[in-house]
Amino acid sequence: MIIAAEVGDIRRFSSARKLASWAGLTPTVRGSDRTVRYGHISKHGDPWLRWIMNQAAQTAKRTPPYAACFEQIAYRRGRKIATIAVARKLLTHAYHVLREVDAAQQQKEPCTTA
Length: 114
Prior knowledge:
mainly alpha, Transposase_20
């Protein structure tokens, strides 16, 4: 419910990637010619949503669906980066759930004729 309240109308995001970018859970990209460097998370968007997803990831990284993903990334990149990756994965799943709920609500609305 908190995610839905912070995001608002989910239909304004055409993909989960755009929602993650809006929330500031995507890395900054700097490039020149053929060189591309990825930096810290962008921190654009809603700081409350970013905090909520980070707190949820702290718990989710201990559960089986997310633990394997967390351990793989933590081994290669570090625990903090892995936690943000789990937060983004959680936000992606939340996006798809909210889209399905929105679609179901639109189907239930009766047609009104004037």
